[in-house]
Design a protein that fits this description.
This protein is an alpha/beta fold. 32% of the residues lie in helices and 22% in strands. The mean pLDDT is 93.
């Protein structure tokens, strides 16, 4: 059986924790898109970790972790994270890197930085991880699949020369930066070849055999619906498709195999990077929520930048869940809100004097103003509670209000950063 774990909003929803929790009952975890531009934060018996490249199932020794063909694969980040796990006493995980995955090259990172520099105040707020240049090269057919490293060296050199004709023209004429040599790219790829040799494999065949054998598979997505290339707040989006439907492509499985889609939302809103954010809050109100939020404050797992903060947005979450095809919703970091007397919830957008509950395209989103309903807070610490019935009445009312607004069943509630801080709930919408 295949389950997908994806985000409904801007990313940073807590997908890593949910994957880590559900991995215990899984045989395989597959990262199916994105790259090191986003981090999945996990707290478990080994400590606190921010994974950028590795699947969130690496803390379970009974499963196979796969980096799928749809991933923007950074060798440097992979090596660094594997070393970090070892240093922290985590047993070496079982990993397969798809031989069809493509490599994020050092020049992709450089081009990302150059473009943000060129754009200045009009920049996209990139993490500068090389993601946009990587995907651009992938679809321009000048990227490097991992299997090519093990092919004929002369063929590889020919492809390098072809790619550098384009790269060097851009470096010289647009960015005024030094050109790249064929030899330095070839040497780097040969270095990658040696580093990756123990992990590279035919993930496609492995996964299809696992499906035939009835194995349990988790698809782990990166970022969220509002950062999707097609359906997000374009152009302030990532360069890959963040929706569960792409999981079939990025993992190489038939779409009909995805039986459950667990869509993760925060009990409030946060975002890193530029783009429209209707329920955003500022000043002391935002600082307080940011300080208390997450599992150590709301700061980007990749960049360390302070996250933009906002109240829960039912319009965006309904859209995100619908886009993902959510069968279940996991509501995270609910414990954070225990300090508030009252909690605003965005239930609609006012655009040109009209209130809508439908998430609009970006040009209309720019005009949107939040319409709030204010709910009473519960004014206590809910960490350590293990059953839904034990939650304070106002806390349950908050969950049920959100559920009714978004129209999708909230079946998991996270009330703390740890693996065991999960409440399972029977939803009337399930």
């Amino acid at each position: 059986m295949v389950k997908a774990i994806v985000g409904a909003n801007w990313g940073d929803e807590g997908k890593g924790k949910i994957t880590d929790v559900l991995a215990n009952d899984s045989d395989i975890v597959i990262r199916f898109q994105g790259g090191a531009n986003a981090g999945h934060t996990i707290v478990n018996d080994y400590g606190k970790f921010a994974l950028h490249q590795l699947p969130s199932g690496v803390f379970h020794q009974n499963i196979t972790n796969i980096i799928g063909n749809g991933v923007a694969f950074s060798v440097e980040n992979f090596v660094k994270e594997m070393a970090h796990l070892k240093d922290r006493g985590v047993p070496e995980p079982n990993i397969i890197i798809s031989d069809r995955a493509q490599i994020v090259m050092p020049y992709h990172v450089a081009f990302d930085c150059y473009e943000e520099e060129r754009l200045g105040k009009n920049s996209f707020g990139s993490t500068k991880s090389g993601i946009a240049p990587f995907y651009s090269d992938k679809y321009s057919k000048i990227g490097f699949q991992i299997n090519e490293l093990y092919d004929d060296p002369d063929s590889l050199r020919e492809k390098i020369r072809h790619a550098l004709e384009i790269k060097n023209a851009t470096l010289k004429n647009l960015y005024n930066k030094p050109e790249i040599t064929e030899q330095e790219v070839f040497d780097k790829l040969m270095e990658y070849k040696e580093l990756l040799a123990p992990y590279v494999g035919d993930a496609f065949t492995f996964v299809h055999n696992a499906l035939k054998d009835g194995k349990n598979i988790l698809l782990e997505g990166q970022l969220g619906s509002l950062k999707d290339t097609d359906f997000g707040i374009y152009p302030m989006v990532t360069s890959s498709n963040t929706i569960a439907g792409y999981g079939a492509v990025g993992a190489g499985i038939p779409p009909y195999e995805i039986k459950e889609i667990i869509t993760v939302v925060k009990a409030y809103s946060s975002a890193v990077g530029a783009g429209e954010f209707v329920s955003e809050i500022f000043g002391d109100e935002a600082d307080e929520l940011r300080r208390r939020g997450g599992d150590g404050g709301e700061f980007g797992a990749t960049t360390g930048r302070p996250r933009r903060m906002g109240w829960y947005d039912c319009v965006a979450s309904h859209y995100g869940c619908r886009l993902q095809g959510a069968t279940d919703v996991a509501l995270t970091v609910l414990d954070v809100l225990g300090y508030l007397d009252e909690i605003p919830v965005c239930v609609g957008y006012e655009i040109d004097g009209q209130v809508t509950k439908e998430f609009p395209v970006t040009c209309k989103l720019e005009k949107a103003k939040p319409v709030y309903e204010v709910l009473p807070g519960w004014k206590c610490d809910i960490r350590g509670i293990r059953t839904y019935e034990e939650l304070p009445e106002n806390c349950r009312k908050y969950i049920e209000f959100i559920e009714n607004q978004i129209g999708y069943p909230i079946t998991m509630v996270s009330n703390g950063p740890g693996r065991d801080d999960i409440i399972y709930r029977n939803s009337p919408l399930a």
